[in-house]
Amino acid sequence: MFTSLITRLSLGHACVDIYQGAVASLVPFFVAERAYTYAAASGIVLAASLLSSVVQPVFGALADRWSMPWLLPVSALTSGLGVALAGVSGSYALTLVVVAVSGIGVAAYHPEAARVARLAARGSHTAMSWFSLGGNIGFAVAPLMVASVIATGGLGASPFLIVPALAGAALCGAALRKIPRPSTTAPDARETAGRDDWSSFAKLSGAIVCRSIVFVGLSTFISLYATQRAGGGAVAGTAALFVLYLGGAVGTLAGGVLAARFGRLPVVRWSYALTVLSVAGTVFVPGPLLYLFVACTSAGLYVPFSLHITLGQDYLPRRMGTASGVTLGLTVSIGGLASPLLGALADATSLRTALMPLIALPAIGLALLSTVEEPVLTPPARL
């Protein structure tokens, strides 16, 4: 039951996070077909992130109060529907609206999914890394899926992008049948005895915000930047985005294994240090070596990904839904808020100049993480 449930949750996670990656993957096509400026194109990423960022804590608080596993299939369908409608109309305003709807679906999914996954994992960092891996795979598949559909049929073919959402809803529904019916009242077994460490949680969240801005900024512009720096046209851009997302899958699995051997905080800190160097290489090194630095950046960003989630949950043992919503959702989506600023800077100067500030952010995250300690572990909750 443990393996089957984690596998289904991971695959469902992949289907949902395709739509987080799909929004950034659509940016080059909006620029090409609709002649959007960098700022306008990044505004679409903002639309997917802004509303998601606002409602994410709400869904996290609800997950603390009530068990709502039915949200998993519903939010999977909602996240896919918004992206599927993004290319149907030439209206910029309508595109922003439907992409925002997709963002709400993503926001609704993650807190409850992370709570259920943590219960199924029974405290295992490796199992949580497998759950997180699903999201990484979704991100990695997104540019390939979008490129194959949109390059063939144009933005008008975007309704075909609904297919993973249908699969995700089915997988989540199958996973729910493995979960015993919970009580509708709180608290429950997930709220075991323990003190909420809000100070450490705030520092961790600040570090994740820094990580999020780097990831979303690169996700939005790496395709266009690779075309400029490595040549090869749209293929080069799609390849760079694919490397950024695929490296995350490897990094996430490695994070669970490394944490089991060296501890969570040392692994997270080493990852942030690596990211400073690799982002600098991505920005400044031209030619094919760009892809190597993109891969290293991806690993540095994703090795700590599942560890962020479990650290947050252990810092807030009585607020698991809130911790999951923030570490897995809010601080990830909030990176999109910075995208228009990077886009405006790119329009005023160049993409290279706009990406330079991303080098400093992992260093700030590392400074924040250097002031926190490993949380005291509480007994793992049971299904």
Automatic annotation (TrEMBL):
InterPro entries, A to Z: MFS, MFS_dom, MFS_trans_sf
Record-level GO cellular component terms: plasma membrane
Any GO molecular function: transmembrane transporter activity
Coiled coil regions in record: none
Pfam families: MFS_1
Recorded topology in the membrane: Multi-pass membrane protein
Signal peptide: none
Keywords, alphabetical: Membrane, Transmembrane, Transmembrane helix
TM regions (residue ranges): 35-55, 92-109, 130-151, 157-176, 208-227, 239-260, 267-285, 291-311, 323-342, 354-372
PROSITE patterns (alphabetical): MFS
Gene3D superfamilies: MFS general substrate transporter like domains
Major facilitator superfamily (MFS) profile domain boundaries: 1-382
SUPFAM superfamilies: MFS general substrate transporter
Source taxon at top rank: Bacteria
Cellular compartments annotated: Cell membrane
Listed PANTHER family: FOSMIDOMYCIN RESISTANCE PROTEIN (PTHR43129)
Record's protein name: FSR family fosmidomycin resistance protein-like MFS transporter
